[in-house]
Amino acid sequence: MKITQHASANTLTLTLDGELDASSSVLLDAELAKPETLKFEKVLIDCQRLNYISSAGLGVFISHLQQFQDAGVKLVFFNMQDKVHNVFEILGLDALMTIVPSEAEATAF
């Protein structure tokens, strides 16, 4: 799993490339836990190249969700492949998290 970061004035975009499983979720957790992450208005998660997500990967997002909400940071997922989106839907996480089809919609959110 490779995580690429791009920051603009008020938005941090994390691009996930590969499989988000138990071992790679540690890397993602470290990225989301950085104090500077909470200084952005939006954290966008580009899932275009995310091929797989395990329960450990989902757990990372769930564990940071309240912290982001408390800090007023919007967490928005975009470009999610159908098979990954289905996992979010089956678990009802699409009701807790913002998932939009494109980067343009994520930026506008």
Automatic annotation (TrEMBL):
InterPro entries: Anti-sigma_ant, STAS_dom, STAS_dom_sf. This is Anti-sigma factor antagonist. It comes from the Bacteria. SUPFAM superfamilies: SpoIIaa-like (SSF52091). One of its GO terms (molecular function) is anti-sigma factor antagonist activity. Pfam families: STAS. Belongs to the anti-sigma-factor antagonist family.
